[in-house]
Specification:
The chain contains 12 helices and 14 strands. It is of the alpha/beta class.
Length: 421
């Protein structure tokens, strides 16, 4: 892989590693046809959040209108709205887990859309494989070199792109951003500027000497870019930006990562794609998952409060931002013997932003009857995750190169006739 270098000791990474028809029409309903820049010249920004571990979408977005849901989950189902600890009513059939009460205003303001029964056409129940397929954007193919977000960047690259065009608030560059386009991964903004600054000072003469001696080597080129990026971030000083509009981020790893993404956006460093997973939140709830209260409820409370704080903090800036959440697969429709759920298939995704046509659950809901379940046990996938990703890439980021971003995938409009307006 060309031009790749990690500053492992500093806790940062500046990395450079080294196809689908139009998305179905129903997805066009939740994103406007705005391209990369609006009239004022501001660039559109995509924030992707990966719920690693396979969140239980059936308790996150509760199908309380289907009696089979309660038959399958006698101990962990979320009660119907207007009950004690009941779900937050959305449309008379679906509701939100009560821990996501903070999302209710987003729904009412039509800033939140839900795509249900979404996922991969590949039936793997392996966390590792499913995450790889989702982040590479090529389900069933382990040989794909780069991630889908890297291909978004590669196919819309410009000669004056910011070093901070793509940033991941993670310890390592995520699979989604691995590829031939340089990206930055860091655990936090302070580490990037402070630790990299110390690292630079300790190598005065040494590292620059390596650069001079290896001017034809990609290591030297990337090292120079790292120094330039550090200086640029110091000048921008994103830490100066405090939460606005009464936003209150949870003091958790996930909350802090979203707060720092907001700081990068406010500092105008050229951010277009931000990535984070959900550090500290383990969605793999095989045991004692709980219903309206318990393990999953606590995870969702942190998740919802953090995202709501981000939206509140950004305020009017959400005109240019879309937040997209995802998880590698869902969980079994029936609870297991340990009052938890096992690895499943279909799941729910959130799409949030001022340009989103929200207040609606999108997707072909097949239901939870035995003959409608995948393998007789899981929510069926009726929307390929690539169609959701592709719609956001095309309609929000203005990237029309979907055949290159998602090779060998062609959306079949006939599959989505239930979604058409």
């Amino acid at each position: 892989m060309d031009r790749r270098y990690f500053l492992k000791s500093s806790g940062i990474a500046l990395a450079s590693f080294g196809l689908m028809a139009a998305a179905p029409n129903f997805l066009h309903q939740f994103a406007n046809a705005q391209t990369i820049s609006d009239r004022s010249g501001r660039k559109k920004i995509l924030i992707t959040i990966f719920q690693r571990g396979a969140v239980d979408g059936l308790n996150m977005v509760v199908p309380y209108g289907e009696s089979e849901y309660y038959n399958l989950r006698p101990n962990i189902a979320v009660p119907k709205p207007n009950s004690v600890d009941g779900a937050v009513n959305l449309d008379g059939f679906f509701g939100l887990h009560p821990s996501l009460k903070s999302f209710e205003a987003l729904w009412r303001n039509k800033q939140l859309a839900i795509v249900n029964s979404a996922g991969s056409p590949d039936n793997t129940r392996s966390h590792f494989d499913a995450q790889d397929y989702m982040e590479s954007g090529t389900p069933g193919n382990k040989g794909t070199r780069d991630g889908w977000l890297s291909r978004v960047l590669q196919t819309s690259a410009g000669k004056d792109d910011s070093a901070f065009r793509a940033v991941s608030l993670t310890q390592q560059t995520p699979r989604s951003l691995m590829g031939r386009y340089p990206t930055i991964a860091m655990t936090n903004l302070a580490d990037f500027s402070l630790k990299a600054g110390i690292y630079t000072k300790s190598l005065q003469g040494g590292f620059e000497g390596v650069y001079e001696q290896n001017s034809k080597d990609s290591l030297g080129e990337t090292g120079k870019e790292t120094f330039e990026a550090v200086n640029y971030l110091k000048t921008a000083n994103p830490a100066q930006f405090k939460p606005e509009n009464g936003a209150a981020y949870p003091n958790t790893p996930f909350g802090r990562s979203l707060r720092q993404i907001a700081q990068l956006i406010k500092s105008d460093v050229g951010l277009e794609i931000a990535f984070t997973d959900t550090p500290g939140l383990n969605w793999d709830t095989h045991l004692n998952q709980g219903g309206a209260r318990g393990q999953l409820a606590n995870l969702l409370l942190n998740f919802g409060a953090s995202i709501t704080a981000l939206v509140t903090d950004l305020g009017k800036r959400m005109d240019d931002v879309v937040i997209l959440t995802m998880s590698e697969f869902g969980r079994t429709a029936r609870q297991n013997g340990s009052n938890g759920t096992d690895h499943g298939h279909g799941n729910a995704m959130f799409v949030i932003g001022n340009s989103v046509k929200g207040g609606k659950v999108y997707g072909d809901w097949q239901g939870l009857k035995p003959d409608r379940l995948n393998d007789g046990r899981d929510l069926a996938v009726t929307t390929d995750f690539r169609d959701v990703f592709g719609e956001v890439a095309q309609k929000h980021l203005g990237n029309k190169n979907l055949a290159k971003i998602f090779p060998n995938h062609s959306a079949n409009a006939n599959k989505f006739k239930g979604f058409l307006s």
